[in-house]
Design goal:
The chain is elongated and about 70 Å long. The chain is an all-alpha fold. The chain contains nine helices and no strands.
Length: about 190
């Protein structure tokens, strides 16, 4: 018999995490399946923004949910499941990027290509982030695209919160400067540094 939502409490992630940990094998899988369905779009979108490749993002999403299933009992704050699963996704991306760099030691890997290559950054966000460094792009996408706090980004990247703030500030300055240059070009006015 399938698990059915009957109360507001049962609509929460915490309820289904509890069921996934405490129930028999089939009920646990069904409860975790519901959690996957709730969060898979956000996870896949985050990974796509980082990789700029749907196939790789889907593969990393599968790895993310497998890791989450195996580590579910270690989750300290069930009410933060969404942030926890996104952190796992980000770590899967980083592990994948490291593996790719090792495999393509003398060539530019897909991570760098996805971050640097204009062909892969044909949307407006990619164009806005073009003047930023790869780290600044990642931080901007995580904070403004997916709602990570600077503290969460700090924990994931192993950098001080002040460093994250500095990267955000520099990225914003670069974006403003780039936009100012574009406006000046379209108006035929030479750009004067600020």
């Amino acid at each position: 018999m399938g698990l059915v939502l009957t109360t507001q409490r049962e609509a929460s992630d915490e309820f289904w995490i509890e069921k996934a940990i405490a129930r028999s094998s089939s009920e646990a899988k069904e409860a975790f399946g519901l959690l996957v369905r709730r969060h898979e779009t956000a996870v896949r979108n985050l990974l796509y923004q980082l990789t700029r490749n749907r196939a790789i993002a889907d593969e990393l999403a599968q790895d993310t949910f497998l890791t989450a299933w195996l580590k579910l009992k270690l989750l300290d704050q069930p009410d933060r499941f969404g942030a926890w699963i996104r952190r796992i996704a980000y770590r899967e991306f980083l592990h994948s990027a490291r593996r790719m760099r090792l495999e393509q030691k003398y060539r530019q890997g897909w991570v760098e290509e996805a971050v640097h290559n204009d062909q892969n950054m044909d949307d407006e966000i990619g164009a806005l982030l073009k003047p930023c460094t790869p780290l600044e792009r990642e931080i901007m996408i995580l904070q403004f695209g997916f709602g990570f706090t600077q503290e969460e980004i700090s924990n994931d990247r192993g950098l001080a919160v002040g460093t994250i703030k500095s990267h955000v500030h520099r990225a914003k300055q670069k974006i403003r400067s780039s936009l100012d240059e574009e406006v000046d070009k379209t108006e035929g006015v030479p750009h004067v540094g600020r």
